[in-house]
Protein backbone atom coordinates (compact mmCIF):
# COMPACT_ATOMS: atom_id res chain seq x y z
CA UNK A 1 0.00 0.00 0.00
CA UNK A 2 1.36 3.42 -0.95
CA UNK A 3 1.83 6.29 1.49
CA UNK A 4 -1.13 8.12 -0.07
CA UNK A 5 -3.32 5.01 0.24
CA UNK A 6 -2.34 4.62 3.90
CA UNK A 7 -3.29 8.23 4.59
CA UNK A 8 -6.63 7.80 2.84
CA UNK A 9 -7.36 4.60 4.76
CA UNK A 10 -6.62 6.25 8.11
CA UNK A 11 -8.79 9.19 7.09
CA UNK A 12 -11.71 6.86 6.32
CA UNK A 13 -11.24 5.11 9.66
CA UNK A 14 -11.42 8.41 11.54
CA UNK A 15 -14.06 10.15 9.40
CA UNK A 16 -17.07 9.65 11.67
CA UNK A 17 -15.24 10.86 14.77
CA UNK A 18 -13.87 13.90 12.92
CA UNK A 19 -17.32 14.85 11.61
CA UNK A 20 -18.77 14.68 15.13
CA UNK A 21 -15.90 16.72 16.59
CA UNK A 22 -16.25 19.41 13.92
CA UNK A 23 -20.03 19.59 14.31
CA UNK A 24 -19.44 20.55 17.94
CA UNK A 25 -16.36 22.71 17.42
CA UNK A 26 -17.36 24.49 14.22
CA UNK A 27 -21.13 25.02 13.88
CA UNK A 28 -22.17 26.21 10.41
CA UNK A 29 -25.35 27.67 8.91
CA UNK A 30 -24.99 25.75 5.66
CA UNK A 31 -24.31 28.65 3.28
CA UNK A 32 -20.60 29.10 4.04
CA UNK A 33 -17.70 28.94 1.60
CA UNK A 34 -14.93 27.03 3.40
CA UNK A 35 -11.20 26.79 2.70
CA UNK A 36 -9.01 23.83 3.70
CA UNK A 37 -5.28 24.60 3.46
CA UNK A 38 -2.93 21.63 3.47
CA UNK A 39 -5.86 19.37 2.73
CA UNK A 40 -3.98 16.10 2.31
CA UNK A 41 -6.37 13.43 1.11
CA UNK A 42 -9.33 15.57 2.17
CA UNK A 43 -10.14 14.71 5.80
CA UNK A 44 -11.36 18.14 6.91
CA UNK A 45 -12.85 19.11 3.53
CA UNK A 46 -14.93 15.94 3.30
CA UNK A 47 -16.01 16.10 6.96
CA UNK A 48 -17.31 19.66 6.70
CA UNK A 49 -18.75 19.43 3.16
CA UNK A 50 -22.24 18.19 4.18
CA UNK A 51 -22.69 21.32 6.34
CA UNK A 52 -21.27 23.93 3.91
CA UNK A 53 -22.24 25.43 0.58
CA UNK A 54 -18.82 24.91 -0.98
CA UNK A 55 -15.36 23.80 0.12
CA UNK A 56 -12.06 24.54 -1.60
CA UNK A 57 -9.25 22.15 -0.62
CA UNK A 58 -5.67 23.28 -1.27
CA UNK A 59 -2.89 20.68 -1.32
CA UNK A 60 0.70 21.24 -2.47
CA UNK A 61 1.46 17.60 -3.44
CA UNK A 62 -0.04 16.79 -6.84
CA UNK A 63 -0.37 13.05 -6.19
CA UNK A 64 -2.12 13.61 -2.85
CA UNK A 65 -4.38 16.23 -4.44
CA UNK A 66 -5.30 13.79 -7.21
CA UNK A 67 -6.37 11.20 -4.64
CA UNK A 68 -8.47 13.77 -2.78
CA UNK A 69 -10.04 14.93 -6.04
CA UNK A 70 -10.97 11.35 -6.96
CA UNK A 71 -12.81 10.85 -3.65
CA UNK A 72 -14.29 14.36 -3.26
CA UNK A 73 -18.04 15.01 -2.93
CA UNK A 74 -19.62 17.36 -5.52
CA UNK A 75 -19.27 20.55 -3.47
CA UNK A 76 -15.54 20.10 -2.81
CA UNK A 77 -13.04 21.55 -5.28
CA UNK A 78 -9.46 20.32 -4.92
CA UNK A 79 -6.67 22.58 -6.20
CA UNK A 80 -2.89 22.30 -6.14
CA UNK A 81 -1.39 25.26 -4.33
CA UNK A 82 0.95 26.58 -1.66
CA UNK A 83 -0.56 27.61 1.67
CA UNK A 84 2.05 30.34 2.07
CA UNK A 85 0.87 32.00 -1.17
CA UNK A 86 -2.83 31.31 -1.67
CA UNK A 87 -4.32 32.09 -5.11
CA UNK A 88 -7.46 33.74 -3.73
CA UNK A 89 -8.69 37.30 -3.27
CA UNK A 90 -8.93 38.94 0.13
CA UNK A 91 -12.08 38.08 2.11
CA UNK A 92 -13.00 35.12 -0.15
CA UNK A 93 -14.09 32.64 2.55
CA UNK A 94 -16.39 32.51 5.55
CA UNK A 95 -14.24 29.83 7.18
CA UNK A 96 -10.56 29.00 6.61
CA UNK A 97 -8.86 26.00 8.20
CA UNK A 98 -5.48 24.33 8.35
CA UNK A 99 -5.26 20.94 10.03
CA UNK A 100 -1.89 19.36 10.91
CA UNK A 101 -0.08 21.43 8.29
CA UNK A 102 1.79 24.22 10.08
CA UNK A 103 4.64 21.92 11.17
CA UNK A 104 5.18 21.06 7.49
CA UNK A 105 5.56 24.65 6.27
CA UNK A 106 8.81 26.59 6.28
CA UNK A 107 7.14 29.92 6.98
CA UNK A 108 4.24 29.32 9.41
CA UNK A 109 3.82 33.06 9.85
CA UNK A 110 2.99 33.34 6.15
CA UNK A 111 0.47 30.52 6.30
CA UNK A 112 -1.40 32.10 9.24
CA UNK A 113 -1.25 35.50 7.54
CA UNK A 114 -2.71 34.00 4.36
CA UNK A 115 -5.51 32.26 6.28
CA UNK A 116 -6.32 35.62 7.80
CA UNK A 117 -6.16 37.54 4.51
CA UNK A 118 -8.61 35.32 2.65
CA UNK A 119 -11.14 35.14 5.50
CA UNK A 120 -14.02 37.61 5.64
CA UNK A 121 -14.22 40.10 8.53
CA UNK A 122 -15.89 38.32 11.47
CA UNK A 123 -15.17 35.01 9.74
CA UNK A 124 -13.79 31.92 11.47
CA UNK A 125 -10.32 30.39 11.29
CA UNK A 126 -9.56 26.89 12.56
CA UNK A 127 -5.96 25.89 13.18
CA UNK A 128 -5.06 22.39 14.32
CA UNK A 129 -1.50 21.22 14.79
CA UNK A 130 0.74 19.00 16.85
CA UNK A 131 2.32 21.00 19.65
CA UNK A 132 5.91 21.06 20.77
CA UNK A 133 6.78 21.04 24.48
CA UNK A 134 7.45 24.43 26.05
CA UNK A 135 10.96 23.33 27.06
CA UNK A 136 13.22 24.26 24.10
CA UNK A 137 15.49 21.19 24.19
CA UNK A 138 12.52 18.80 24.35
CA UNK A 139 10.93 20.68 21.44
CA UNK A 140 14.09 20.31 19.36
CA UNK A 141 14.32 16.59 20.15
CA UNK A 142 10.69 16.02 19.18
CA UNK A 143 11.17 17.90 15.91
CA UNK A 144 14.26 15.76 15.16
CA UNK A 145 12.19 12.60 15.62
CA UNK A 146 9.29 13.85 13.50
CA UNK A 147 11.67 14.99 10.75
CA UNK A 148 13.46 11.62 10.77
CA UNK A 149 10.09 9.91 10.44
CA UNK A 150 8.81 12.31 7.75
CA UNK A 151 11.33 14.69 6.12
CA UNK A 152 8.54 17.11 5.17
CA UNK A 153 8.37 18.10 8.85
CA UNK A 154 10.04 21.47 9.41
CA UNK A 155 9.45 22.50 13.02
CA UNK A 156 6.85 21.81 15.69
CA UNK A 157 5.65 24.96 17.44
CA UNK A 158 4.64 25.27 21.07
CA UNK A 159 1.30 26.70 22.14
CA UNK A 160 2.95 30.02 22.97
CA UNK A 161 4.43 30.23 19.45
CA UNK A 162 1.08 29.63 17.79
CA UNK A 163 -0.62 32.17 20.02
CA UNK A 164 2.04 34.68 19.00
CA UNK A 165 1.18 34.09 15.33
CA UNK A 166 -2.51 34.55 16.08
CA UNK A 167 -1.87 37.75 18.02
CA UNK A 168 0.29 39.20 15.24
CA UNK A 169 -2.69 38.82 12.87
CA UNK A 170 -5.17 40.29 15.38
CA UNK A 171 -7.06 37.01 15.62
CA UNK A 172 -9.30 36.45 18.63
CA UNK A 173 -9.17 33.00 20.24
CA UNK A 174 -12.73 31.79 20.78
CA UNK A 175 -12.10 28.21 21.80
CA UNK A 176 -9.15 25.92 22.39
CA UNK A 177 -8.86 22.19 22.95
CA UNK A 178 -5.74 20.16 23.67
CA UNK A 179 -5.99 16.49 22.78
CA UNK A 180 -3.46 13.77 23.63
CA UNK A 181 -3.09 11.06 20.99
CA UNK A 182 -1.23 7.88 22.03
CA UNK A 183 0.73 6.54 19.08
CA UNK A 184 2.04 3.10 18.27
CA UNK A 185 5.50 3.87 16.95
CA UNK A 186 5.61 1.10 14.36
CA UNK A 187 2.22 2.01 12.89
CA UNK A 188 3.21 5.69 12.96
CA UNK A 189 6.39 4.93 11.01
CA UNK A 190 4.38 2.81 8.55
CA UNK A 191 2.01 5.74 7.92
CA UNK A 192 4.92 7.92 6.80
CA UNK A 193 6.43 5.17 4.64
CA UNK A 194 9.56 5.29 6.79
CA UNK A 195 11.67 2.23 5.92
CA UNK A 196 15.19 0.81 6.03
CA UNK A 197 18.01 2.56 7.90
CA UNK A 198 15.93 5.72 8.23
CA UNK A 199 13.25 3.77 10.08
CA UNK A 200 15.80 2.48 12.59
CA UNK A 201 17.16 6.02 13.02
CA UNK A 202 13.67 7.42 13.64
CA UNK A 203 12.80 4.57 16.01
CA UNK A 204 15.90 5.38 18.09
CA UNK A 205 14.82 9.04 18.32
CA UNK A 206 11.24 8.26 19.35
CA UNK A 207 10.26 9.48 22.84
CA UNK A 208 9.43 6.67 25.24
CA UNK A 209 5.69 6.17 25.70
CA UNK A 210 5.17 8.58 22.82
CA UNK A 211 1.92 10.46 22.54
CA UNK A 212 1.23 13.50 20.39
CA UNK A 213 -0.23 16.64 21.93
CA UNK A 214 -2.53 18.35 19.42
CA UNK A 215 -3.96 21.84 19.77
CA UNK A 216 -7.30 22.82 18.24
CA UNK A 217 -7.82 26.60 17.96
CA UNK A 218 -11.03 28.30 16.84
CA UNK A 219 -10.37 31.96 16.05
CA UNK A 220 -12.28 34.97 14.80
CA UNK A 221 -10.87 37.41 12.28
Give the gist of this structure:
With 221 residues, the protein is of the alpha/beta class. 41% of the residues lie in helices and 25% in strands.
Question: Would you mind describing this structure in some detail?
Answer:
This protein is of the alpha/beta class and 221 residues long. It has one domain (3-133, 155-187, 210-220): Rossmann fold, CATH 3.40.50. The protein contains 8 helices and 7 strands. The protein has helices at 3-25, 43-48, 62-71, 108-118, 136-149, 159-168, 185-191, 196-205; strands at residues 33-37, 54-59, 76-80, 93-99, 119-130, 172-182, 211-220. It has a 7-stranded mixed β-sheet with strand order 3-2-1-4-5-7-6, sandwiched between helices. Strand 1 (33-37), helix 2 (43-48) and strand 2 (54-59) form a beta-alpha-beta unit. Helix 5 (136-149) runs antiparallel to helix 8. The protein is globular, with a radius of gyration of 17 Å. The N and C termini lie far apart (41 Å).
